[in-house]
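# step 3/5: fold
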Amino acid sequence: MTQLTTPRLARRDLLKGTSLTVGAATLLRSAFTPTPAVAQGAISAGTVHSFATGGLRFHTYVSPPEAVHVTSHIVEFDDQLLLVDGTMLPPTAQEVSALVASTGKPIGMAVLSHEHPDHWGGAPLIKGAGFATLPQIREAVAAEAASGDFGDPANVLNGPDIAIGMTEMSGVPVEFRHYENTEAPHMVVTVLPEQKVAVVQDLVYNGVYFAPGVDRTNWIATLESFRDDPSFETLLVGHGLPTTRGELDTAIAYLKTLDAAWDAGDTPDAVKTAMMEAYPSYDGAFLLGLIEPYWDK
């Protein structure tokens, strides 16, 4: 397999995808009933997908196609909320804020899963959320934010360090895990073992083309380690709808297909074409354009 480098995903690479006009129908195939979010600004409305299990309610906000279906997740406890990620654009962040307000509960903790700006670009607009994350992630966000393209993410840069391991919120066990060199250099995964729910973010994409990642061999090994993990059955992902642990096999197969296309392709465009032919129903083709920054042939 071709060895991958670790380029920073630039603001221009993410923002140039905001004019993408591909349909979201292939994403609406789960048992979760979507509720339209309140449209803000000049892009389509996102959707909210909610379910209850183990005494908690879970809400996943899925951004519209223009924002490559990036997600933000809210875990609703009796007296507070756990928020994971802030989405990319002001309109999507405003919709996340509206979802938070609709619960009538305060944000007890907010978490940033990784450094990519499609997950924190909207964070400055989410009031009452001081995002906890790893120091390594915060350092990368600071470097990216220096461009000014996403505003000042003060509630990320001034947020607390996250404590990896088991803790509790409202008496409910919550585990934070740290995985290195997968889709991103550092990834925080949130697990609620009693509810058997894991917020895996960009370790799994559902029906959306994947970013190339830092080290696909390690990324695959990480997903394989999840197969027999008894802590979760439901996956809340970084792009697309909530899904089940069966999506792990789909993600592993996708990454292996990408490896084969990468090794066989002479150019980034050749790899992009191969992946679109292999996964014609997937959305977010703009993300395949991120192959070029990783290309080292």
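# step 4/5: annotate
The domain at 11-294 is CATH 3.60.15.10 (Metallo-beta-lactamase; Chain A).
# step 5/5: archive (pending)
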